[in-house]
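Good morning C.,

I know you're traveling, so I'll keep this short. The sequence:
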Amino acid sequence: RSDFMPFAPATTEELAPLCFKGWRPDHAAARFMTLCYSCTEAFKRACPAAVHADGTARPQVVPRALNPAFHETLRLYHQLTGAPAIINTSFNRHEEPIVESPDQAAHALKQGWIDILLIGNIVSGL
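The tokens, ready to paste straight into the viewer:
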């Protein structure tokens, strides 16, 4: 990806203050990758692929109360790796529409565009 199209980080609400300068829990729009924050030096070192060329990022900050399953995934990932975020990006190929259904996601798996697909409790592609 180019410098102007970096990957977006997804992190928990608890870790966000360690990653993004000026982030606050009342920044509800940060739940949807719509706000840009200057990154801390620690975040720049830990997650360089999610940092824009100007040292900022457009995160998805996940509160436990609004998305408990994804929050727990992020918490466990941090516990296992020490990394404060994972990469989050839209599910589509470059210049293609965003995947909007399980059938389209299965097609992406069959075409080899992704390696693993998780829908509900079903994992495919292993």
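Safe travels,
E.
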